Amino acid sequence: MAEKIRLLSSVIGSEQVPAHLARSVIEERLRSAIVDGRLPPGTALRQQEIAGLFGVSRMPVREALRQLEAQSLLQVVMHKGAVVAPLIGEDAVDTYALRVLLESEALRQSIPLLEADDIARARGYIQELESETRHAEIGRLNRLFHMTLYSKAHNQKLLRMIEIELNEEERFLRFHLSSMGLGKLTQDDHNALVNAASDKRVDEAVNVLEEHLNNGARAIRKYLDSQRLSM
């Protein structure tokens, strides 16, 4: 038990945290460790152990774990409690189909309100993606690019739902880009998407986005099929 707590401490830290900041600090520490792989899938997270590391009650820890569960980063498993979720599930292709619906609507709402600064920011992420080779950064930049184009959508709940799915994709991309055989990702779709958004060509932008996401779904399906065959 002591060894497990030392390992957890080395991953998320251990210091006294003010009570009013505890939930947000613990959530961010755990989220970062899950997303970058320091807490691998299947790792059990005990409320009392985390509370002890930060010198707080179990309440802010419980709230942080609930937030991470809502982001699909944790699952509650019988007899184990909260555990780090798998990188990708069998419902991944269905998730992409849902993303097409959600993100197309967000893009339609956002494009008419996008300003020059938004377009410039999106183009900046594309430039970084062009030269980036670290899978962790590719996942992060991909998420930021898409959220920039959706950022002016007026439906905030819609944006929160989309960000949850993009967080899940970011985490997956960090670990499986090479094993999926994707190599360096082309930015053709991203360039076409931002060009259409810049010119306020909403229907064209939505068509590009839908094809972009459908390509992702096909890549995921191919990867999952190959994993089953190798088992």
TrEMBL record:
SMART domains: FCD, HTH_GNTR. Keywords: DNA-binding, Transcription, Transcription regulation. The keyword 4Fe-4S does not apply. InterPro entries: GntR_C, TF_FadR/GntR_C, Tscrpt_reg_HTH_GntR, WH-like_DNA-bd_sf, WH_DNA-bd_sf. Residues 20-87 form the HTH gntR-type domain. PROSITE patterns: HTH_GNTR. The keyword Transcription regulation applies. Coiled coil: none annotated. This is GntR family transcriptional regulator. It comes from Pseudomonas urmiensis.
